[in-house]
Design brief:
Blueprint (H helix, E strand, L loop, with lengths): L1 H18 L8 E4 L3 E4 L19 H7 L17 H4 L2 E7 L6 H13 L23 E7 L1 H12 L4 H13 L7 H4 L1 E2 L11 E2 L1 H14 L1 H12 L2 E8 L4 E6 H6 L10 H12 L9 E5 L8 E7 L22 E8 L14 H31 L2 E6 L5 H11 L7 H15 L6 E2 L1
Parallel strand pairs: 1-9, 3-4, 3-11, 4-7, 11-12
Antiparallel strand pairs: 2-8, 5-6, 7-8, 7-10, 9-10, 12-13
Helix pairs in contact: 4-5, 4-14, 5-6, 8-11, 13-14
C-alpha cells in the first residue's frame, strides 16, 4: 500500500512538472533590450558602488542614426538644456510594493499638481518662494510597482506643459486608482499547479499595452529623452543569470523609429514593465529572446520582479549620464512599503510557512536597500530625501485594516486609502524627510 501511494505521488509530480514547464516557444517575445547588469559592491571601498558602463554615447548615436521618426520638439522658453548643463541634477527613485504602489501614485501626482515635481524654471531654482523643495528629475528609476508608475511620472514631470497636461490625468485615474483584480488578473485556482504562477496576467498585459498605444507613450518618451537627455530606467531580475538588470526605457522607446529593430518595440516596452513587476509565483515570468546586436543569436532571458534582487536602485554613474560632472546631486526616494508584516499564525501549512518567509525576506531587502542608499549618499556627499510609509502612523494602520478585510491582490478600498494618504503627505509643509 505504501509503495503504491509513493508511486502515485511520483506520477502526479511528474505530470505536474511536465505540464507546468515554462517557458514554451510561444511564451517568448523577441526584443533587443538596452540592458546592463547592476551589482552593488562594497559601499565603504572608496569607489562605493558598481560603476555601470552607462552607454554614454547612446543618445548621440540615436540622433545621428537617421532611424528616429519623431523629431525632438523644443517648446519656447523651456530650459531643456538643464539635464545637460544644469548645476543641480535630481534623481527620482520609486520602489516596488505591489498594491502599496498606490501610495507613491498619490504622493507623486500631488507633487506634480502642486508644481513641486517637474514644471517650469528647470535649473533656475531648487526651492519655490515659500522655501518648498522643487524637484526637476533628470533621472527616474522604478522597480515593480515603481516601474508601472515610472513612465507616467517621467512624462507628467516634463518641462513641456503640453506633456504634463496630457499625463497628469493618467496618473490621477488610470493607474492604481483603477487597479482591481477583475481588471488585471484572474486566479488560476487548481490550474496554478500546472502553470508558472498563481494568477493569469493576460488582462494586465493587455491593459498596459493599450495604455502605451492610446497615449503614444513611445513617441512622447522619445521626444523627451532626445530633447532633454532625461533618463528613465526600470529594473528586473534575470533568473537565468541571477542578476538584476537595468532596462533603459528611453533608448527602447527611441528604437521605434528603427526599421531594423528585431521585434515590436511597443510589445517589448510593455514586456519590460511587466518583467520588473512579475512577482515570483504570483505573476507569470516574462520570457525574452534578447538579440543584443543585429544578426547575433538571441539570448534567452526569463525575468521576474526586480524586487527579487532590489526594491529600488540608483547606481553611482547614473548621474554621469546627465549634467556636468561637477553638478550638485540630490536623490529623492519614494518607498511604497508600510513595513507592517502580515504574518500568518499557527496552525501553519507548508504554503503558510513559505509565504511568511517570503514576506520577512522582502521586508529585510527593503531595509537593506534603504541603508545602502543612505550610506552611498553619505559617502558621495549627496543629499537624499525620503518619502516612506510610516507603519506607526494611525492613518497607515487604518489603510491596513481595509486591506485585511479583502482577499484581493489589489484591494480597491486599500489602494484608494493609500493614494489619499500619499496626497496628504505631499500636501504637508515638508513632504520629504532628509537623510
Amino acid at each position: 500500500m505504501k509503495g503504491s501511494s509513493v508511486a502515485a505521488m511520483l506520477i502526479c509530480c511528474g505530470l505536474i512538472s511536465a505540464c507546468g514547464s515554462f517557458p514554451g516557444p510561444s511564451d517568448y517575445t523577441t526584443c533587443q533590450l538596452p540592458t546592463e547588469p547592476f551589482q552593488i559592491q562594497s559601499v565603504t571601498a572608496g569607489s562605493g558602488e558598481h560603476e555601470l558602463d552607462m552607454r554614454h554615447d547612446a543618445r548621440d548615436a540615436l540622433l545621428s542614426s537617421g532611424h528616429i521618426k519623431f523629431a525632438p520638439e523644443l517648446p519656447a522658453a523651456q530650459a531643456y538644456s538643464h539635464c545637460v548643463t544644469g548645476a543641480v541634477v535630481d534623481a527620482l527613485v520609486i520602489s516596488g510594493g505591489g498594491a502599496d504602489g498606490a501610495y507613491g501614485n498619490g504622493f507623486l501626482q500631488k507633487l506634480i499638481a502642486q508644481n513641486q515635481l517637474g514644471g517650469t524654471a528647470w535649473g533656475q531654482s531648487i526651492t519655490d518662494p515659500t522655501g518648498t523643495t522643487v524637484i526637476h528629475p533628470c533621472v527616474v528609476t522604478g522597480v515593480s510597482a515603481g516601474a508601472v508608475l515610472a513612465p507616467y511620472v517621467y512624462l507628467a514631470s516634463s518641462p513641456n506643459p503640453a506633456t504634463r497636461a496630457k499625463y497628469l490625468p493618467r496618473l490621477q485615474t488610470a493607474l492604481f486608482m483603477s487597479f482591481t483584480d477583475s481588471l488585471l488578473v484572474q486566479d488560476r485556482g487548481i490550474r496554478a499547479l500546472v502553470s508558472p504562477a498563481k494568477y493569469d496576467v493576460s488582462k494586465l498585459k493587455a491593459y498596459i499595452q493599450q495604455l502605451i498605444k492610446d497615449d503614444q507613450v513611445l513617441t512622447d518618451i522619445t521626444r523627451e529623452y532626445l530633447a532633454t537627455n532625461r533618463r528613465i530606467m526600470v529594473g528586473a531580475t534575470n533568473i537565468m543569470s541571477g542578476k538584476f538588470e537595468v532596462i533603459y526605457l528611453d533608448e527602447l522607446a527611441a528604437s521605434a523609429g528603427n526599421p531594423n529593430y528585431p521585434g515590436d518595440v511597443a510589445t517589448c516596452f510593455g514586456a519590460s514593465i511587466r518583467a520588473s513587476a512579475a512577482i515570483p509565483v504570483t505573476f507569470d515570468p516574462v520570457a525574452i529572446h534578447d538579440i543584443a546586436e543585429p544578426g547575433a543569436a538571441p539570448k534567452d532571458k526569463i525575468y521576474v520582479d526586480g524586487g527579487a534582487r532590489r526594491m529600488f536602485f540608483l547606481g553611482a554613474d547614473l548621474f554621469n549620464r546627465v549634467g556636468p560632472h561637477d553638478a550638485a546631486h540630490r536623490i529623492f526616494a519614494v518607498v511604497n512599503n508600510t513595513f507592517i508584516l502580515d504574518i500568518k499564525q499557527p496552525p501553519l501549512n507548508i504554503l503558510d510557512i513559505a509565504e511568511n518567509s517570503a514576506k520577512i525576506a522582502a521586508d529585510q531587502l527593503y531595509r537593506d536597500d534603504i541603508t545602502q542608499l543612505g550610506d552611498f549618499s553619505s559617502l558621495k556627499g549627496r543629499n537624499i530625501f525620503w518619502s516612506i510609509l510610516n507603519s506607526q502612523a494611525e492613518e497607515t494602520n487604518a489603510c491596513a485594516n481595509t486591506k485585511s478585510a479583502s482577499s484581493d491582490l489589489f484591494p480597491h478600498a486599500y489602494e484608494v486609502c493609500l493614494y489619499q494618504l500619499g496626497e496628504e503627505h505631499a500636501s504637508r509643509a515638508s513632504p520629504w524627510h532628509r537623510h
